[in-house]
Design brief:
It contains four helices and four strands; from the N terminus they run E-H-E-H-E-H-E-H. With 129 residues, the protein is mainly α. The chain has one domain: Alpha-Beta Barrel (TIM Barrel).
Length: 129
């Protein structure tokens, strides 16, 4: 993953679905990526809080990541939202994002349980290692 500092405005992308809500609309996602870049954002973040990360399957996650990275074509950094309640899941999702060519990840803290400061430190240290 990239080691340069990330600067500028990044968009946490929505995940578009087909009109019936049955599946991810990858063509609409490609258009959204192009629009964001054309309008001057400095980076993209799929699968963040507004990206329906809790509502998509593992296969859909992979498709979303592949679509955004491919559509961005290296013009802006792509950070993947890899937040999850379980640290092991965050590690797995972060490794997948790296393998798919992400420039970095964005990780929210565990959101269901209320971790202590020490638990949060351990969570992020485990992912970083």
């Amino acid at each position: 993953m990239a080691r340069e500092p990330f600067r500028g405005t990044y968009t946490v992308l929505i995940t578009p679905f087909t009109a019936d809500g049955a599946e991810v609309d990858y063509k609409a996602l490609e258009r959204l990526v192009e629009y964001q870049i054309t309008e001057g954002v400095k980076g993209l973040i799929p699968l963040g809080s507004t990206g329906e990360f809790l509502s998509v399957s593992r296969e859909e996650r992979q498709g979303i990541v592949e679509t955004v990275i491919r559509a961005a074509r290296g013009r802006v950094p792509v950070l993947i939202g890899t937040g999850a309640e379980d640290t092991r899941e965050v590690v797995a999702l972060s490794r997948e994002a790296e393998a798919q060519g992400a420039d970095g990840v964005m990780i929210i803290p565990p959101f269901y349980s209320v971790p202590t400061e020490d638990e949060l430190f351990h969570h992020y240290k485990t992912v970083a290692d």
